[in-house]
Write a structure and sequence with these properties.
With 305 residues, the protein is of the alpha+beta class. Helices cover 60% and strands 13% of the residues. It has two domains: 124 residues, Beta-Lactamase; 120 residues, no CATH class. The chain is built from nine helices and six strands; from the N terminus they run E-H-E-E-H-H-E-E-E-H-H-H-H-H-H. Strands 1, 2, 3, 4, 5 and 6 form a six-stranded mixed beta sheet that branches. Strand 4 and strand 5 form a beta hairpin. Helix 6 crosses helix 8. The termini are far apart.
Length: 305
């Protein structure tokens, strides 16, 4: 049986000077193990005293022939020293030892149990082994799959980081292009407003002053009004982003600049006079003249010239 220190002590006394019936003990152990497990008993010199009849291993082609033979003579030379070291440690310490070993591509998980006599001396050791080749193969395959998965994740992460970097670069380039487009648009509007004021408006005014024909003067007034509206649109559009003018406030500002009264603006835009007054106050606030005695019409006209 096993004691608390994981060693085996025989209780089967055959009556011969305190010797033990190891055969009965081995048979008892065999009854507890399946056919795939190796069970072999060695004396203190490494001589095989018992071996499981159904044990199947490359080393043990004929189990009966091993009885009475030294096990070290049958092990591969490269494994003898390591196996001897485990055997001697179990003899000296009286403790069970577990180890794994490979032979001809097969992995064996082994436990070495010391067997004590009644005086507490280690008389023999029992080696119990199980073939774990399949579990080792599965473990190796799982490790390979895990490494492959980690490689895929790492590669995918690098690809995503690279794509994110390229996307950020594209976004930066797009922002630059949009900013440049806005600047070019603003410059074009400013140029157009300046060109109208400098190259067209002065001549229209001269024609208006010199004309005596009522019909021609009427057309000139229409042209002048349209030019003023156009330049005002350019001027207010240029500043609307910075000033925060809404589309409705721009419409009200254009009508104020054209000399329309609040009632006329309310009628044209189909809103109340109170709403027009609200927009007037917002326009003055955003233009920075809310608390100043500044004529809103004059101020807007100046913006368009």
């Amino acid at each position: 049986m096993k004691t608390q220190n994981n060693h085996v002590q025989s209780q089967a006394d055959n009556g011969n000077n305190g010797s033990f019936d190891y055969e009965a003990m081995i048979k008892g152990l065999i009854s507890l193990c399946d056919d795939n497990e190796l069970i072999i008993s060695l004396d203190r010199n490494g001589v095989v005293t018992h071996i499981k009849e159904t044990t199947k291993h490359e080393l043990f082609q004929n189990n009966a022939e091993l009885i009475g033979k030294c096990i070290w003579d049958y092990l591969p030379p490269e494994t003898v020293e390591s196996r001897k070291a485990v055997f001697l440690e179990a003899l000296e310490t009286g403790k069970a030892i577990r180890y794994e070993g490979a032979y001809n591509g097969r992995w064996i998980d082994s436990m070495v149990y010391p067997v004590f006599d009644k005086q507490g001396n280690v008389r023999q050791v029992i080696v119990m082994g199980r073939d774990i080749t399949r579990s080792k193969q599965v473990e190796k395959e799982l490790r390979r799959l895990n490494e492959g998965l980690e490689e895929i994740v790492e590669r995918r992460t690098e690809e995503l980081v690279d794509k994110a970097k390229k996307l950020e670069e594209l976004n930066s380039a797009l922002r630059v292009l949009l900013q440049k487009h806005d600047e070019e648009k603003r410059e074009g509007e400013e140029y157009m407003s300046s060109a109208i004021n400098q190259m067209i408006t002065p001549y229209v005014r001269q024609i208006k002053q010199k004309s005596t024909d009522p019909e021609i003067s009427s057309y000139i007034n229409i042209i002048e009004t349209n030019l003023n509206d156009l330049t005002l649109k350019f001027g207010i559009a240029i500043q609307s982003k910075a000033l925060g003018l809404t589309p409705t406030e721009i419409e009200v500002a254009l009508l104020i600049k054209a000399g329309k009264a609040s009632k006329e603006i309310a009628h044209l835009l189909e809103i109340s006079c109170e709403t027009v007054g609200f927009h007037r106050n917002n326009i003055r606030y955003k233009l920075g003249i809310k608390n100043k005695k500044e004529n809103l019409q004059s101020y807007l006209m100046a913006m368009g010239t």
